[in-house]
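Data availability excerpt. The first of two example chains:
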Amino acid sequence: MEKLLNIQEMSKLIGLSTHTLRYYEKIGMLKGVARNEQGYRCYSEADLLWIQFLICLREMDMPISEMMHYSNLRTQGDSTVYERRVMLEAHQDKVVQQMNKLNENLGRIGAKIEHYKGLEKTVFCEK
């Protein structure tokens, strides 16, 4: 039998607050979390994997509305596999564009740093 985690254990393990876990459940992104005899949440390995994926989406700046839509599609089962894949591909494209823009801007900052280093050598050599 797999070890089930309570909300504090899950929170500590994944780095989300208990408030966020409850919120995800309240808005329907985290469905089917088991409860024990006392009514406390008992998170399974499957719950852990799903929450980790939600964290991944959030860290990649997917809006909560899109995360909810993806979650609802997932709940509908295999009939939505195509739509989920297309949705992830579209988000992946956005992330790649953001990464390209960040790399471009990082290059600009690097060039400016090199420019300042050159100026420093000129200024300090003259003194």
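And the second chain:
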Amino acid sequence: MRRYLIFILLCWPLWASAQKTQEAQEAQDWIAYRDAYRQMIWFEKYGKPKQFLQNHFRIRAREKGASTDGLRLSLNSKNIHQSLTLDVLGRAVFPFSKAAYDDNAELTLNRNASQFRSGAWVSIVTRADGVYAAADLRTACEQMLAYLQYAGAAAGKACVGVQFSYPRSDAAEVVFQTAGGASTALVVREGPAFPDDVQSGFRVVAYRFAAYPENGRIVSSSVPLAIAALLE
């Protein structure tokens, strides 16, 4: 019993220190700019084709109960104070700044940062006219897969399609048109904008390559919030 008490007394300072560190991390409302910069620069330096891809810095909820309504992101340092606009999916245009890097700036949230995941987020570029050649979407998916594999993810995956996402209030229609002009409406359902997200409530339309001819095009009646690659 005495040995057990001595063991506890010896280990207590280490446990208390670890507990304080964990509590400090859970209470933080900031993200190191330098860490985010290192993630984002991967895409900038990527030398293979990526004309159908775009890269954002994204904040997304870890759990379903963590709301992103009213979430605000800003870049702050001794000399910099800049608000960064988040879209409805939590994406922001990342400010590449040598001054912010040198100042060891912080990306600050108005919420507890431990409730959210943050980092680089690549998606497929949307078109204002809503018209997407089937061949381009296949190429976009392959570009996404190649980039993720370059970044050390998506091992063993293959491109099976893409997913269009819309606000719940958007009654957008998405159709596949063959080269001969015949049209087939794609099924609309409710789900997350990106396959791995915990938050749903969006209108999503999956275009799976195997279900349609290689030649043709996808026509969307409005601009989607995002286009995600379906990798399985």
